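Please, structure for the following, as tokens.
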Amino acid sequence: MFKYLKNDLPASVVVFFVALPLCLGIALASGAPLFSGLIAGIIGGIVVGALSGSQIGVSGPAAGLAAIVLTAIGTLGGYENFLVAVVLGGAIQLLFGFLKAGIIGYYFPSSVIKGMLTGIGIIIILKQIPHFFGYDVDPEGDFAFFQVDGENTFSEILNAINFISPGATLIAFIGLGILLLWSNVLSKKGKIFNIIQGPLVAVAAGIIYYITTQGSDTFSISQEHLVTVPIPDSIDGFLGQFSFPNFGVITRPEIWVTAFTIALVASLETLLCVEATDKIDPEKRVTPTNRELLAQGTGNILSGLIGGLPVTQVIVRSSANIQSGGKTKMSSIIHGFLLLISVILIPTLLNKIPLSVLAAILFIVGYKLAKPSTFKAMWTAGWKQFVPFIVTVVGIVFTDLLIGIGLGLAVGIVVVLYKSYQNSHFLHKEDVSNGKQKMKMTLAEEVTFFNKGAILKELDRLPENTYLELDVRNTRFLDNDIIEILDDFVEKAKNRNIDIKLISQKGVIENPESFIEFFNLRSKSA
């Protein structure tokens, strides 16, 4: 793992700056203590990062769980009671891993996964626009369309126009300029510009700007536009920020319902993220999904035991890791240690970082996920790829991650059924035989009840005085529904003067009396 430290260390710094506001923002959006988001980020980086089989995935608190956490804290009677559900949720995830449930991750269509990446990219850009201009009413990490501040994604942007902070906006543009200069020009000039990442320079510029403009009436940045890390006044104060589960409520049914909900949603988000990060991994490595569930379960147990939010693998931090050149899991682990060390040693310095500079960093992450070329490539791939893709994108932007994925998956299934409907058989005309038009129908290797409509339609369209040659030599599975359709067609064929020639691996039969009898015998002999 240390072989690529020159790549992983700079990448971990970028992931750290992306993760810091998200950990705090997700905790705020969840109605949980701010420190709980940092705990989840630290556990996700160090513990899950070490146990995971993913080389480039980064774990931490997930925006997709914020609404569940917010509701659960209220219904369960307090944060300590909720932590019991987090611990139990982690144990259930371990069970999922032992039961090999990770295989579910391989069944999401590529078009939906690409739509997920693109949708997340667009959401990042849209959600960061208010922060870029110094309007920080909605917390970082609130990625749902309907926000915790009562607004939605687009109304928040419109509101931001009336509350632009000149200082925050100015340093945001300076930071964005540094990032673009670094990635497009300086990174090609020498190794030093690859070791020292642009986001680190942009953040440093933001801190210097904040310190030097504090006396200015116009261009200073007020406290509400800065990162807010809890600052303990002593070691005891730091330790006092940890919370511990109240296991006295473990027998309550609602605790177990919440635990199962956390386990299910966290596992699903993780598997989706694993599939997505593997797809954008330059080295195309494949993450063992069952091991990932075990790692996430362990992380959630530990996070719950010391007061942290639920943990999942998260696409924003993972994509930032990949875009910054991270090669191995060391980048995730180091980012976790950076979170831990910084909140202990330099919380005051962290609280001088303008949120608008971090918004500029996230702009770049979002753009790289939602490049216009992706839309063009999906359009070129044809409607069967583009429709599930665009439905996923729109669903994520206007609802949330899981609903958007669900909509895209539903459309993807419809497309698969439509393709199955089309590909159940092949029918073409041949030469006239004995005064009748010869038609040849070849059934596919697998024909299920999904294909009933297509086959029934073709049989009903056959003209009178036709000679039908039905070829099932390559058919390995024929659903009973299809056999019944063929059997019903025997009577219709007699009335329309249609002759049938059945060609199978058993031989050739002219005008079979019963398809049910034939195929049942054939299945028994097989």
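The mean pLDDT is 90. The first strand starts at residue 58 and ends at 61.
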